[in-house]
Each structure stands twice: as C-alpha cells, then as structure tokens.
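Memo to structure team: turn this sequence into structure tokens by end of day. - J.P.
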Amino acid sequence: MSGHLTSEMRDLAELSEQEKAQWNDWARGDPALSSPYFRVEFAQSAARFSPGSAVAVFKRDGETVGYYPHQRRGATIQPLAAPMSDYHGVIGPREAKPTLAEAAALMQARRFAVSAWVGQAPTGALRDESILSEVAEGGYAAWYAARRRAFPKYFKDKERARRGLDAAFGSVEFEVGLRDHDLLDGLIRQKSAQYVRTGRHDIFACGWTAQVLHALMDADGEDGFGGSLAVLRVDGRVGAVEYSLHAGRTFHMWFPAYSADLARWAPGILLSMETIRIASERGYREFDYGVGGGNAYKKHFSDRTAPVAEITLRQPGLGAALTAAGSAMTQAVGADRAGRIRDSLRRRWAVIEACETHPLARLKGAGRAGLAALGKARGRAALKA
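Reply from structure team:
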C-alpha cells in the first residue's frame, strides 16, 4: 500500500482510551490476530514488569495504521514479554499496516528478532505453524468423536488412563478458570525445576517473567481477557496444573506441569481434555497449543494449523561465549550437525537475551547453554558410535 509510513515510540501506559479501543477492535476484526497475545491488555500487563518495554505506533500519511509492542535488549528489539510471547506481529488493518521488514526499518533496529511472527515476513524466514483445536457449535462431544475416529488407539488409551486414575484414587477432580496466586507460584517452581533438570534456561529465575504471569491473572479485560489455571486434583492434592491465557473465543494453553508419580495415567493429557470440555461449555471455540509439533501429543488434538515465521534481521555474532562453544561443537560432532546445533544455540541465546538484562547473567546463561548443547551433541554421537 502506498503512502508515507512513520513510527513513534510510546509508553504503553500512556495510550488513550480511544487508542486502546482501536487496538482491540483491530485484533478482534482479524482472525489471524485472535490470540490473547494481540490484545492491548496483554501488552499493558506485560509492560509493567518487562524492562525496556514500549509500543511503536505506525502511521501512514499521518493516520495510525498499527501498533507493535516490544522490548529492547541492548541493540535488539524483541516482542514484548519474550520469551513468553507465543505470537507477535503488528496489530492493525491488513491492507495498511507495515510488514515485518518495514517495521524493523521504521524502528531503526540494529537487530529485530521474532520467533512466531503472524503476518507477512521476508524471504529467508524460517516457517513454522501453530497447532489449534476447533470446537464447533456441536460442542465437545462432537469434537471428541471426530478426534477419536481420527486416532482411535490414542484416545482409547486415554480413556483407559482415566478409568485407571478413577480406580486408583478416592476422588478425582478437575477445575478450570482458577485465579489462585499460590497455585501459580507452585507451578512456577515446578517449571523452574524442570528447566534446570533438562538443561534449559530457567526463564523464571530473572523474576520479571513470573510477575507478568501474576499480572495477567489479575487482569480483567474485555471479552474475558486474562490468565487462569486449570487443575487436576487426586485425593485433594495437585496432580496436574496448566496456566492458560484467554480472550473472546480463544483459549491458549500455555504452561503445563504434572506430578511424575502419576505419569502412567497421563495426567497432563487428561487435564487438557477436561479443559477443552469445560471451557467449550463456557463458549470458547478455539484452543491453541502454541507453535510447532515438538510435543507428539499435539497432532492428536490438531484440527488446523496457522503459519508463523521466525527471523532475526541484521543479526551479528552471538558473542564470544557462543562462538567458542560453536567451534568446540564443530570439532566434537563434525560440520554436518554443527549447523543444527548452532540453530539450537541461537534459540537458547534468544531466550537468555530476553530474560536477563544484566551482562553477567547473560554471559553465565550463554556459557551454560553452550555446555548443555555440546554435552547433548556428544551424547548423541556416542550412541551412534
């Protein structure tokens, strides 16, 4: 679209009521922007705690055509609340808002990094897709019947798991839509322990990320916007819990955890199924599992996918620690696999850069990421030897 594009950096707390209404009207009006991450309430809640937060207001010939909430980490512009922002893009009318490349240029970004961009992306971007379930007006029963026909063995197994859980415990209870901060703190501790155990960067160690989740739980925005918990309790204790974000008809499944001693009964999957059942009865129609099929269970729930893009524009080197780690990995595993490992390191670095605002914390995180990736590569090489 022709016209002169400009951008203005604004504090999210200073947006007018008219601007906030315009933002949400655009998000509601475009099915590609149906995720709660595109609501102004998400941006304003996250901006209270994310260091370096702001919003770029784009104008074409003086008329506002888009908003892009973001955070700065040194020379890098990232989506606001990264690494916890599952989707991002310019909120505005499709025909008028800037593309990814235009937005980066207008914001004068030395590095402009996105991991799940919704909208037009330049050539060279890595393509992925979000995984979605759609519960139509026929309700959960019709949706489940269709899933069971598509994957009979999988869902028969989950039905057996549910019967086994009911037989093993005196009471099995599911609740959806809880806003319990103590329960959320327990989930955060469980996720932190999981990150450490699996060699991933603990995104909650920096503090501000946990504050964002609590703030979203307190949010009471338009169309039911907010964060809440679903929980499975067996004999009164928490067996599985998941934090989700929702708005309008969309329910985004976000941070799950379950007790390892219940693994034989697939408590996380059973909780997801009950969440879909209960939430669909409350009017939710789209259930989003985030980007990628890294978790094998997602394919059994997927009714459709939606494209996203990952790219870093004007990306410099990742720093001395990661360069050294990359050289060591090339020597250890050979050049053929070094590229894949460097991609993994790049993603790990993006998480570290987003979470940690102090240079020393970033350096430590980068060193741990390099050692973890090298150890994983050597382990795979040993298995194949």
